[in-house]
Amino acid sequence: MAILAHVLQVVGWWIAPLVIFLLNRKSRFASFHALQALLLQLVYLVITGAFMILWFASFFMTMAHHPADKGAPPPTALFVLFPLVWIGFMGAWVTVLVIAIMYGVKAGRGEWAEYPLLGRMARKILKIGPGRTTLSQDS
Prior knowledge:
Layout: H1 2-7, H2 9-12, H3 15-23, H4 28-64, H5 76-108, H6 118-126
Helix pairs in contact: 3-4, 4-5, 4-6
């Protein structure tokens, strides 16, 4: 289930890790990995929301300062900003994809692998000490 929590977040977003987290509360190992995946999805949601706000704000600001002539060309800022926002979206998605695969493999090996920053937060939420490194200590 720990492997599924990581891998299914790519297609199931935050819903898959949440379901696995809620269904596997008895297994600290599966709960730990599912909570990490859930926290990563929440961070991804915030970053995606920030890119959306940036895109809409810049779009409306550019259109507000653009002349209303029918023959006027579209604003150049839109052609520069759209690829940058798209690269941001794709970069965030590829980062989540790589993290999901890497930590899914580590969970398959039975490792208590921590995401940077989010792993510590997951340990605090679940009250798991920092000493665990392999599945054999899950008891």
